[in-house]
Amino acid sequence: MDEENIWDTDTAQRYDTPGSGMFAPEVLGPTVERLAQLAEGGAALEFAVGTGRVAVPLAERGVPVTGIELSQPMVERLRTKADEATIPVVVGDMTTATAPGTYSLVYLVYNTISNLLSQSAQVDCFRNAARHLGPGGRFVIELWVPELRKLPPGQAATVWACEPGYIGLDTYDVLNQLVVSHHFRFDGTRNAELARSPHRYIWPAELDLMARLAGFELETRHADWAGSPFTADSRSHVSVYRLPPTR
Questions:
Q1: 234: Cβ–Cβ under 8 A, 6 or more apart, which residues?
Q2: What pTM was computed for the model?
Q3: Contact 156, 172 (CB under 8 A)
Q4: CA 224 → CA 56, 102, 235, 240, distances in Å?
Q5: In angstroms, how far apart are the furthest CA atoms of the chain?
Q6: CA neighbours within 13 Å on the CB side: how many for 143?
Q7: What is the 3 state secondary structure string of the chain?
Q8: Locate the Methyltransferase domain: which residues (predicted)?
Q9: Cα-atom radius of gyration of the chain, to the nearest Å?
Q10: pLDDT of 191-214, one tens digit each?
């Protein structure tokens, strides 16, 4: 399951769910609002820009946005919403691809850093973010907290969603810190549709160390984009890392 095969034309065509899921106003609104604040009037770079779920409304807020994206089909979907002049996109790997210019904000949302399946690649992602930022620039990551407390000894999977027409479960390889998310969608027939995506899960403390290796310091961490406190029971976090004002 390599990334280019996962984010293919079929996935790109079905990715957007306007008004619901991660496109729901109560999800997207606080995300865009917070990122606009953190940009502080400067330009933003989105790693894994996808179909423009965040980039398009952020650009509409007046923040200049550029994207890096590995999947050409996802970029083609983005192009139905915004042209190259509005949201320029570099097609490439977010660990190495270079976008022109210097930015005040780089952001990586909706758990996407976990799509990089090695610690080394995840560290390289931080370093690539640092290369694109000016002094005092910020790197923002939205990421889920590994739910290993739900995984009893000897059990390799957890169900994290069960609702009409859908079941979501994760299978864990705790030795290598890997997880595969399985998405089962079904209707009234005997047939079901399965989609899978691999991830390398990251503990918040490990993420902070990756940041320090790239020259960042943790500025803030909250449980969501609205600024709720991050606690031991939080299922996700929004972490803001910042470079020193002078380097």
A1: 145, 223, 228
A2: 0.91
A3: yes
A4: 20, 27, 9, 12
A5: 61
A6: 26
A7: CCHHHHCCHHHHHHHCCCCCHHHCHHHHHHHHHHHHHHHCCCCEEEECCCCCCCHHHHHHCCCCEEEEECCHHHHHHHCCCCCCCCCCEEECCCCCCCCCCCEEEEEECCCHHHHCCCHHHHHHHHHHHHHHEEEEEEEEEEEECCCHHHCCCCCCEEEEEEECCEEEEEEEECCCCEEEEEEEEECCCCCEEEEEEEEECCCHHHHHHHHHHCCCEEEEEECCCCCCECCCCCCEEEEEEECCCCC
A8: 45-137
A9: 18
A10: 888 888 899 999 999 999 999 999
List the structure tokens of 20: 């619901």
Distance between CA 14 and CA 131 in Å, rounded?
33
Condensed to tens digits (0 to 9), the pLDDT of residues 123-160 reads 999 999 999 999 999 999 999 998 888 888 888 898 98
Distance of CA 76 to the CA centre of its chain: 19
